[in-house]
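A quick aside before the break. I want you to see a complete sequence-to-structure record at least once, exactly as it would be stored in a machine-readable document. Don't worry about memorizing anything.
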Amino acid sequence: MTVRNARNRQKTYIAGIAAMMTLAMCSTIASAIAAENLRLKDGISFVQDTDNGFPIVGDKMEDATLDQNKPTLIFFGAAGDLNTNRQAKRLIDLYKKIQDKVKVIVIDVDHPANANVVKLIKTYYKGYIPLNVVLDKDGKLSTSHSGEIDTGELKSKVDRVL
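That is the input. The structure line, written in tokens, reads:
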């Protein structure tokens, strides 16, 4: 084996180890975090289409993993959409009541945060926003609703999977 071939083989080996370590770290991080402290972004309008960014902010928003043994509510929306903004307000009101019992995932369909988000978009999003999807504790679809929905009605859909 030439010195050149040995160096190329060593570089390939090191790159492979680095890639495996990165994947291991990412999967560990993804399973260890959960979106927290969801709230409405300051300056969001509920009367006109103005783009002040995505209407919901919070900590660890990139988490789009499903938790085993816990129901999930997925909210799909987009920045600058009046209906998304109004539904976001309802979702935050509901989130305050259910955050300990239900995992809430918030997705900006125009700016997917990672591969898990893209997978959820491909699986559940059909082109209409806002969209609320409720999954049972096994990750099976319970209900899906496009357009605005009253907080009480959405809560009753979530209550069915508790």
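Two observations worth writing down. DSSP finds four helices and six strands in the chain. The helical segments are 3-32, 82-98, 115-124, 151-159. We'll return to this after the break.
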